[in-house]
Specification:
- This protein has helices spanning about 45-55, 100-110, 130-140, 180-185, 200-215, 235-245; strands spanning about 5, 10-15, 15-20, 25, 35-40, 60-65, 70-75, 80, 120-125, 155-160, 190-195, 220-225.
- Residues about 1-15 have low confidence and may be disordered.
- The longest helix has 15 residues, at about 100-110.
- The two termini are about 20 Å apart.
- It is about 30% helix and about 25% strand.
- It is an alpha/beta fold.
- Strand 2 (about 10-15) and strand 3 (about 15-20) form a beta hairpin.
């Protein structure tokens, strides 16, 4: 396997401290053109996705697969699990853990901060990892995190598989400034969801893509998969590869 572990990291926002787990890196087999941080789902770790991503025919991409901190999850009655942020319930009206989302998005930004200047940067993920990815996309457009701190990374792409857009209901009126509109309109986003998903319902993915487009993320692509549950399949990975190659201008 051409990935290696890096040291544990920690983050602190407004007094809430967490310790991130092991980060796995899949190094490019060809000329390095892009680096993407890929975020796993609730209860998972970076290793499982790094092994899948290593098999993709994308020799120009470096994948960074961190492991979320273990923290109490309200959905599980406070039982701890590896998670990028807290989840109270899988419903449209539930509260968003902005503090946790900011901490996760800042961790992603930190992982991307030391990449060479000529490398295109992206973030992607599955389930709650997709939520963090799409949230990072909105932070990039707004130029700041939910807590107002500046967002430091120039993203070139964001991907969300089987997830949702956190804080969608708070975006209204925030993306009207010209510079923000330009950033939103320039960012290619891929949202994919299975119609048979019984964990994060299909309508969450569909409504998230609609929300992104309505708020000016004009380069949002939505792909639906009949019969797909809360997992990925080769067809989805094949289309992800084609989409990334096209939108990042990879040599292949």
């Amino acid at each position: 396997m051409s990935f290696s572990g890096t040291a544990l990291g920690s983050g602190r926002i407004l007094g809430r401290a967490v310790e991130f787990g092991k980060t796995h890196v899949v190094r490019p087999k060809g000329k390095h053109q892009a680096t993407i941080v890929w975020l796993h789902g609730l209860g998972d770790n970076g290793s499982s996705w790094s092994q899948l991503l290593e098999t993709l025919p994308l020799p120009n991409i470096k994948w960074i697969c961190p492991t979320a901190p273990s923290q109490p999850i309200s959905l599980f009655g406070g039982f701890p699990s590896t998670a990028w942020f807290d989840v109270v319930g899988i419903n449209e009206d539930g509260p968003d853990d902005v503090e946790g989302l900011d901490m996760a998005a800042a961790h992603v930004a930190n992982l991307l901060s030391n990449e060479p200047a000529d490398i295109k940067l992206g973030v992607g993920g599955f389930s709650m990892g997709a939520g963090t990815s799409l949230y990072s996309a909105t932070c990039f457009a707004l130029g700041k995190y939910g807590n107002g701190s500046p967002y430091p990374i120039n993203l070139s792409t964001a991907i969300g598989l089987s997830g949702w857009l956190p804080c969608a209901k708070t975006l209204a009126g925030k993306l009207d400034e010209e510079q923000i509109k330009n950033r939103a309109a320039s960012l290619p986003i891929l949202v994919c969801h299975g119609k048979g998903d019984d964990v994060v319902p299909y309508k969450f993915g569909e409504k998230s893509s609609e929300a992104l487009i309505s708020h000016g993320f004009k380069k949002t692509t939505f792909k639906a998969y009949s019969g797909l549950g809360h997992y990925t399949i080769p067809q989805e990975m094949d289309e992800l590869c084609s989409w990334l190659t096209s939108n990042l201008g990879l040599q292949g």
